[in-house]
Amino acid sequence: MPILSTITRIRFLLGVFFCIAIQTAAAQTDASSTHILPEGLDWKYNPANGHYYALFESTTWYGAQSIAISFGGYLATINSEEENNWILENVTNNSVKFFIGLTFSYELNRWVWENNENLQYTNWRPGEPNNYDLNEYCTVVYEDGGWNDIKKDHIYNSVIELESPISFPEGYQWKYNPNNGHYYAYSSESFSWHDSNKEADNLGGYLVAINDEQELEWIHESFYPFYWTGLIFENNAWIWINGDPVTYTNWISGEPSGDGDFAEETGYGWNDRPDNLEHPCLIEFDHFPTFDQPTLKNWSSLNGDTIEENQLIAGAPKGYEQGIIKINDIPTGVGSDGKGLEIKLMPGQGAFITSLQQFSFPSYVHLSGYVKASNQEAEIALIGLNSPIDGQVAYTNVRADEVPIDDYKQFHLIFAPPSGNFQYAIQAVNSPFSSLSTTIWIDNIEVEAFEPQEEAVFLPLAENGNFEGGLQNIISNINGDDGIVLPIFESMTDIAIRMSLKPANTAANIGTFCVRLEDQFPLRVLGQVNIKRESLPGGGMAAIVLTNGFQNLGVFRKADEINDVNDGEDHLMIGGDFSVDNPNIPVSVFVQIGGPGAEVSVIVDDLILFKN
Questions:
Q1: Rounded to 5 degrees, what angle do the CA atoms 304, 309, 314 make?
Q2: In terms of CB atoms within 10 Å, which of 190, 254, 396, 491 comes out highest?
Q3: pLDDT category of residue 469 using cuts at 50, 70 and 90
Q4: What gap in Å lies between CA 535 and CA 600, rounded to an integer?
């Protein structure tokens, strides 16, 4: 019976959370007084449209797209013969092939620009696009200006387009150091050391690490020489907070003297000081800092007076009436300063709140927030929404005994945005069958990079995720009209699982559960499965879901966006916290390919869960 309850819960979640993928929001931008072109590239200004273009060195299409985003731009969008010729003559000198931002969307069944501009001009070479080998989804421009469709894993140069110099946040003096290729920002305000460190985190940099005399001299020539540094005393040693080895110091004679654990630059040398002093901060960036939202911070205190002032939009999830959603005075407690998001839900009501901010992270993302409720009637989810091109949704969903009522609990969502871009959302619902109204309070949403620990401990599964036993101990096909699940030999020693769907099938899925976890709660669990598509694009969604009935973690990806067998393995990854041990349902993991109406086949292997 417990396993059947888990299966019912999984089937419900896979249906409910498909609707989240279609809810999107647009980012806003604010004016700023500092405008900078990224250093290190030879930018060319096109007077015809006022845009800037630069040629970047060889990489795959995915790498080129990521690089363009990191510079605050996109792979070039070419709207006329004149623009095509201008790029050839001024940017590439007719000497190299290069990627542009035109890709084929199987969802729309047409070629589209990555920046969503209308397609009004093409310059295909004779016989192109031909989708050779059924795997050519992106576009490369040849030396003569002709276009060809090509595989995304081929390596070419790329042309990046930037609509205008990047607007940097106000309140900082920005400079580029040609000696090391780093950028620096000097604050006009003063902060404690810890608040300075948070400012650095918010901007995507770190408090300055000074590694030699040349760097120190450049800093003194560029900024007023009085600021907090990233040098701190920890574990009986002075260390740079960014992890650089301490190879150079500039202590004043007699310092450090034990006055504090944080190093300030005085203009005469370094001095150890306590955190409670307020100084300007000097923030360092290894690469060009970009800002989708110029005043963007990677955390939200939710202290604006209205939903709109906190850059949020509110509505109702599909199938629910909208409850009362507002910024209000809320109960104080761990993680809350007494002002935040308040959601009041009668039975049958819900809330879906989306951030207008867009975030960019190169790999894993850790999204968190503090939540408390008046009772345990509600289901509450923290969601990571990716772009429609990525076709991915990640969520962590708490219900029943996982919903905190005595004090705030921080809930966590860890995932990997395919292109590095995402928005967050919050969903809360009160079941129509509930007998009580409920109030939910949420505060201090935070976004940060996540790096799995090297010493992560793998969790034992009832069926090993390498599937050497085939389907012997696997839970499979929990729906009434499932697709085909078969073990296959990928090599003489490696068994994988093929999951196939026809349009009449609802889903195909496999599952297993963790063993020997009873005394380990609370624990942070991360799950990952390798996946590749062996069929032509045919719709559907792939998912990996972790659940114990109280806490649910899941990530969904459009099957058409998963690497095919010629591109190598892709992976789905999800992580979060399980705080309560459910004695009836063990922590379980399910992998699914779902429809309806899809015709697709995927191969999954190397399913792992580990605690971090």
A1: 110
A2: 396
A3: confident
A4: 6
Q: What is the pLDDT of residue 148?
A: 94
Confidence at residue 458, expressed as pLDDT on a 0 to 100 scale: 86
Q: How far apart are CA 245 and CA 273, in angstroms?
A: 21
CA distance linking residue 159 with residue 64, whole number of Å = 9
- Bridge partner residues of 202 (DSSP): none
Indicate the residue type of 377. E
First to last CA, the chain: 30
Q: Are 604 and 485 in contact (CB under 8 A)?
A: no
Joined together, the tokens standing for residue 243 give 């992890």
Instruction: Give the dihedral of Cα atoms 238, 244, 249, 254; nearest 10 deg.
Output: -10
Give the residue, 19 or 187, on which the prediction is more confident. Answer: 187
Model confidence pTM above 0.85: no
> Parallel, antiparallel, or unpaired: how do β-strands 321-322 and 349-355 relate?
parallel
What's the DSSP call for residue 456?
Answer: P
pLDDT in tens, 145-187: 999 999 877 889 999 998 877 667 778 888 888 788 788 999 9
Handedness of CA 500, 394, 109, 156 (dihedral sign): negative
Judged against a pLDDT cut of 60, whether residue 30 lies above it is answered with no
What Å distances lie between residue 85 and 54, 149, 163, CA to CA?
A: 15, 19, 18
Considering 82-86, 131-135, 317-321, 549-553, the range whose residues carry the highest mean pLDDT is 82-86
Spatial separation of the C-alpha atoms in residues 227 and 187, rounded to whole Å: 9
**Residues 572, 551: Cα–Cα separation, whole Å:** 19
Angle of CA points 447, 452, 458, to nearest 5°: 135
> Can you list the positions of beta strands (E) in 88-168?
98-105, 110-113, 138-141, 147-150, 156-162, 166-168
| Model confidence at 584: pLDDT above 80 | yes
C-alpha 104/C-alpha 128 separation (Å) is: 13
Q: What percent of the chain has pLDDT over 90?
A: 44
Give the separation between CA 186 and CA 388, rounded to whole angstroms: 37
Name the 3-class secondary structure at 281. strand
Pairing between β-strand 156-162 and β-strand 98-105 as defined by DSSP bridges: parallel
Q: What is the largest CA-CA distance in the chain?
A: 79
User: How buried is 97 (Cβ within 10 angstroms: 0-12 exposed, 13-18 middle, 19+ buried)?
Assistant: middle
| Neighbour tally for 213: CB within 10 Å | 10
| Mean of per-residue pLDDT scores for the chain | 84
At 350-385, the pLDDT tens digits run: 999 988 777 777 678 899 999 999 999 999 999 998
Distance CA 120, CA 388 (A): 21
In angstroms, the CA 278 to CA 193 distance is: 7
CA-to-CA dists, residue 584 to 204, 398, 580, angstroms: 43, 16, 12
Q: Does the CA dihedral 262-265-269-271 come out positive or negative?
A: negative
Which class for 188: exposed (0-12), middle (13-18), buried (19 or more C-beta within 10 A)?
Answer: exposed
Beta strands in 73-150 (DSSP E): 74-75, 98-105, 110-113, 138-141, 147-150
- Strands 457-458 and 270-273 come out as unpaired
CA distances from 333 to 104, 339, 396, 407 (A): 50, 11, 22, 6
